[in-house]
Structures are given as C-alpha cells and as structure tokens.
Specification:
Layout (H helix, E strand, L loop, with lengths): L3 E9 L2 E5 L5 E5 L3 H11 L3 E6 L10 E3 L2 E6 L3 H20 L10 H21 E10 L6 H8 L4 E5 L7 H4 L5 H9 L3 E4 L2 H15 L3 E2 L2 E5 L5 E8 L6 H9 L1 H14 L3 E8 L6 H14 L7 E8 L6 H21 L7 E4 L5 H10 L2 E4 L8 H9 L6 E5 L12 E3 L4 H13 L2 H17 L2 H22 L1
Parallel strand pairs: 1-4, 1-7, 4-6, 7-8, 8-9, 9-12, 13-14, 13-16, 14-15, 16-17, 17-18
Antiparallel strand pairs: 2-3, 5-6, 10-11, 11-12
Helix pairs in contact: 1-16, 2-3, 3-4, 4-6, 8-13, 9-12, 10-11, 10-14
Bound molecules: GDP-alpha-D-glucose.
GDP-alpha-D-glucose binds next to helix 1, strand 13, strand 14, helix 12 and helix 13.
C-alpha cells in the first residue's frame, strides 16, 4: 500500500456507499460540515483519509477516490452504540455544548471510546509516510493524537476541534477529563474555532495538569526534565466561498430561487437551515415566531418561515424527543395561524442537494441562525457568500462561533425571546441601504477567509513546527 504525506483522520469517510445501477456497491461524495470544509484542502495534496464507511460491520480494503486514498475503519453495531451514539454524542456533545441536554457518564461507553480511538490511530499509523503529517478531526477522536505519537513519533500531528471547548467548571465534570486532555496534547497543533475555546482548553490544562501555558503555546513535559511545545489556538473554519458564489450565479439555480419566491408571493421569506439538533436553537426560533404571529406583529400573509431540519442522529434518545417536540410545535402554530392560502411554517425534515440549499439562500430575505451553542456554523457563512447583490439580513446567535467574524449581522441572544422577536421584526423591516452596508462587510470577511485559507494556515503551522523540531534535534 502506498503511504501518504498527509493523513486526515475523521469519524466518517467523505463518501457514502450506494448501490450502482446493477446493484453493485459504489461510493459517492457525501454532504456535511466537515466534508464540505476539507474537500478543497485535500484536493491539492497527496493525501489519505481514514474514517468509518457509514455502515456497521463494513469491511472494505483501502481504495482510491478522486485522487486520494480512502482507508475504511470497521465499526460494529456495539461500537456504534457505545463509542458513537454513546460517548461521542451522549457524553461529549452535550457536555461541550454547555449541557443544553444532560450528558450521561457511562464507563462502558468510555471503554469503547478508548478501543475505537486506538483502531483509528492504528489505521492512520499504517498509512502515513515517514516524517509525514496526520491531521485528526473532532471530538469523536480526542485520544488519537496521543496514541499516534506513541505509535509513530516521527510524524507531526494536528488536531482540529469543530465544536466548542467548554468552560473549566463544565469540563471538570468529565470523569475521564485528564485522559482526554492528555489525548489532545499528543498533537503538535491543537486548533479551535474561537479564541474563547482555546482559552478554555488552556485553563483546563493549567488547572488539571499544571502544565505551563504562554500565549498560544503549552509546554508538555516528556520525562527527564525535557519538554516540547504544542500550539493551542483558534483557526476559525470557513466555506469554499467561490464555489457557493458560482452556484449562486447559475441560471438554473437563480430560476429555482425565483420559482420559490413566486410560490411564497410577496411575503417575506425567513429561513432556517439546521441539522435537527438541540444545540441549534430551533425551538427558540419557533417560539419567537409563534409569539409574533400570536401578538399580531406578523400577519400570516406577510411572512413565511421555511425551516429545513435535516435528519440527524436518530439513534440518540434526546434527538427523538427533540424531533417530537419540534413537530408538535410546528403543527400547533400551523393549526392556529395558517390559512388555506398561507402556511405559517413550512417545515421540512429532509436533506437536500446543495443546489437547492443555494436556491433557498437566494430566495430568503432573512436567514435565522439562532444556535444556543455552535462551534462555528457554516450555514451563516454560506448565506452571506451567495448574497452577491448585498441584499438580505442575517440574524445570528452570539453563541455561534461565526459571531466573532460576522459582527455586522444582527446579533442576538436566543434565550431572550423578547430580543429574538424584536430582532426578527427589525430584520424584516430593514431598509435596503442598511442591508447592503452590513452584507458587504460580512461578504468581505467570508470571501477573504475561505476554507482554503483555513486549511493552509493550519498546515503551515504544522509544517513550521516540524521544521523547528528538525532543527533542534
Ligand atoms: C459542526 C459544528 C461547525 C445541512 N443540511 C443540509 C446540508 N447541510 C450543510 C450546510 C452546512 C453543513 O451541512 C452544516 O454545518 P454547520 O456548521 O451549520 O453545523 P454542524 O453540522 O453542526 O457542524 C459546527 C462545523 O462542524 C464545521 O466545523 O461549523 O459548529 O457543529 O454546510 O449547508 N447540505 C445539504 N443538504 C442538506 O439538507 N446539501
């Protein structure tokens, strides 16, 4: 098997297994936050990708796809229950999103997390070239950096954390907090979305491990009085802005956006696009919108809320409960305020092709991103990227990482329902010159700081660390 200079290790491979016309299995590129972000970075490198193939017990040999080597890791149904749905999505996800849902601490889940992290680390160790780079992605694999370092001390290791890193008082609840910190510190560069996430991580390091930190660096002891420096800082992720701009210029997509607008009539179209997840603040958005209808501030014929809630983690109980609750709320609001002609909320529990998403972004007067906690939120950036005529209003939660860069959005605290209602009204009524002023500033940010720059900046830091280490050896 050929060895790769850069190996990305992520929970999922960037492809889905589908049946071809004759029933034979083939692979198709899959949508989603991480895949979208890494697509471009990987295209320019001789790389490999280690990850799960998306089906339990799937055993497949490494294969070539779009110029990269893909290395499938096998997960059993028990692994999926304990490592993925359990520890990753039932413990870490809620704990790191400020316990919006209660995290469960189960020792059997932790044991599985350790076992599966080792499997990923071993697969990556087999495929990375001598002196190469390994770039680990996200909270499902926090132990892989340290395991990699033990298996392959010759490689330079990066880790990027896509979700928030919580305040010390929350992180300290984790029974395996020390092991997780040690796992992450196996990396040479540990990347976070926001300055605040890197700060929280460094604080936990100081308090729990007593390692010194200075600026963006952590001094990690290596025994015998020796130590090495790891970088722990923010690298805000972004989108392939040019790709979205190109889609937004395609005549068929413009026509589709117009068709959506015609269907809605002269009403204002407000849009929400989220995975169906309790961190995204969909309930708070619906509540605010429902109250505006109840107060008579928005009449049924004046606005429509389109809410795409793409299916997510159906095996986790909290997600089943959330879905029930949201669907009940939508049904109630529609029952009370829709007419034969107008539907108050168009709720769609479906995934759509990217072209359709762009058409929706183009058709929407107001984009609602009201997450209670979100690492970054790429939807906010996608909306901004496609608004080439500088129209449209972004309502953005302060608690989404994107708020650090998109300060010209209408920022809102989604817990404050009165503030949400006022901000939605302000968005609907915003005069065109103000829309243009705000949108222009945001578009500059998104276009100048695209995902290509994100990947390049991270890999440049990894390279620099490797070179510095070679010099001092
Ligand atoms: C995690 C962090 C961080 C959604 N539905 C459909 C669809 N999408 C696409 C969106 C966007 C992506 O999925 C979602 O990204 P987000 O950033 O909004 O959220 P998470 O999935 O929670 O991602 C997050 C991200 O990682 C990257 O670091 O920003 O904070 O939680 O690109 O457009 N795409 C298509 N059909 C859908 O139905 N094609």
């Amino acid at each position: 098997m050929s060895r790769a200079d850069l190996v990305v290790v992520a929970n999922r491979l960037p492809v889905d297994r589908v049946e071809g016309p004759d029933g034979e299995p083939t692979w198709r590129r899959s949508p989603g936050g991480l895949v979208t972000a890494l697509e471009q970075v990987m295209q320019n490198l001789d790389g490999a990708w280690v990850g799960w193939g998306g089906k339990a017990d799937l055993e497949v040999e490494p294969f070539e796809f779009d110029g990269n080597l893909l290395v499938p890791v096998t997960l059993t149904p028990d692994d999926l229950r304990d490592y993925y749905e359990g520890f990753s999505n039932g413990t870490i996800w809620p704990l790191y999103h400020d316990v919006i849902a209660a995290p469960e601490f189960k020792r059997s889940w932790w044991d599985s997390y350790v076992t599966v992290n080792r499997r990923f680390a071993e697969a990556a160790a087999d495929v990375v070239a001598e002196g190469g780079f390994v770039w680990v992605q996200d909270y499902q694999l926090q132990l892989v950096p340290q395991m990699m370092r033990e298996l392959r001390p010759d490689v330079t290791i990066g880790y990027f954390h896509h979700i928030p890193f919580p305040a010390y008082a929350l992180f300290a609840q984790l029974p395996w907090r020390t092991q997780v910190l040690q796992g992450l510190l196996g990396a040479d560069v540990i990347g976070f979305q926001r300055v605040a996430d890197a700060g929280n991580f460094q604080r936990s390091i100081r308090r729990l491990l007593k390692y010194p930190t200075k600026g963006d660096t952590v001094q990690v002891p290596e025994g015998d009085g020796a130590s090495r420096l790891s970088i722990a800082k923010h690298y805000p992720i972004s989108i392939d802005a040019n790709h979205f701009i190109e889609l937004a210029r395609r005549p068929d997509i413009i026509a589709r956006a117009q068709a959506i607008r015609d269907q809605i009539g002269s009403q204002k179209l407000m849009l929400g696009v989220d995975r169906l997840d309790y961190t995204k603040g969909i309930r708070h958005r619906l509540k605010s919108y429902g109250e505006l209808l109840a107060d008579g501030k928005i009449k049924g014929h004046e606005a429509t809320l389109v809410q795409i809630a793409s299916p997510s983690r159906p095996g986790v109980e909290a997600y089943q409960d959330l879905r029930d609750e949201i669907e009940k709320t939508v049904a109630r609001i529609n029952g009370d305020y829709s007419t034969v002609e107008n539907t108050a909320i168009r709720y769609l529990h479906q995934g759509y092709p990217r072209e359709e998403m762009v058409a929706l972004y183009l058709a929407a007067d107001v984009m609602l991103v009201t997450a209670l906690r979100d690492g970054m939120n790429l939807v906010a950036k996608e909306y901004v990227a496609v608004r080439g005529d500088n129209t449209g209003v972004l309502v953005l939660s302060e608690f989404a990482g994107a708020a650090d860069e998109l300060g010209s959005a209408l920022l809102v605290n989604p817990h404050d329902i009165e503030a949400m209602k006022e901000t939605m009204m302000r968005a609907v009524a915003m005069p065109a010159p103000e829309q243009a002023r705000r949108m222009k500033t945001m578009r500059r940010k998104v276009i100048d700081n695209d995902v290509e720059k994100w990947g390049r900046t991270f890999l440049d830091d990894l390279r620099e660390l490797r070179d510095r280490r070679r010099e001092t050896r």
